[in-house]
Write a structure and sequence with these properties.
- By secondary structure, this protein is mainly α.
- 60% of the residues lie in helices and 3% in strands.
- It has a two-stranded antiparallel sheet.
- The two termini are 15 Å apart.
Length: 174
């Protein structure tokens, strides 16, 4: 038997997944603006970006209060909503589905983050962040990845109709 997933359910999943990113976006913005809560003494996020090979522009943004990863997370949230809200229908489907499909890789990345945090297998002998920061990041990765996956799946060949799970032929508005 095929279950019908109503658009309201899809929008709710996207909203909840996106809400999971709010603490991450807020924390990363706070750090970019000079906040220190959750960071180890002497740790500088911009220096860490530079050390890991980030471009000069990304490091400059970080030093001037704009965190690149927070901006990307916010873009993921907007993209997820564009997939499920009427205003997103103005964009070609492929333009939304391509980055959304790639964004679903945040789910395994979030799971890996959780596993490494729980097993303390990140390879670091000293931690740059306090332990309460990891759940904010993991929830954001899992939430945005799930929101993008569900949103993309809902737009994948179904247009404005109800979505069937699993998709088997055209859905009807029963």
């Amino acid at each position: 038997m095929t279950r019908v997933v109503k658009p309201a359910v899809v929008r709710t999943v996207v909203a909840l997944g996106s809400a999971a990113a709010v603490p991450y976006i807020a924390l990363k913005t706070y750090w970019a603006m000079g906040g220190r809560a959750g960071l180890a003494d002497g740790f500088d996020v911009a220096d860490e970006f530079a050390k890991n090979g980030a471009s000069d522009q990304v490091v400059w943004l970080e030093r001037h209060g704009i965190d690149f990863t927070a901006v990307m997370a916010l873009m993921g949230v907007v993209l997820a909503f564009a997939l499920v809200r009427p205003w997103g229908r103005r964009f070609p489907r492929w333009l939304l589905l391509t980055p959304a499909s790639a964004g679903t890789l945040l789910v395994p990345y979030g799971l890996l983050t959780v596993v490494l945090a729980l097993t303390r297998s990140g390879g670091h002998t000293e931690y740059s962040m306090t332990e309460w920061v990891v759940p904010a990041g993991a929830c954001a990765f899992l939430g945005i990845g799930t929101a993008l996956g569900v949103g993309a799946w809902s737009r994948l060949g179904h247009g404005d109709r109800l979505v069937r799970w699993p998709a088997r032929g055209p859905a009807t508005d029963e």
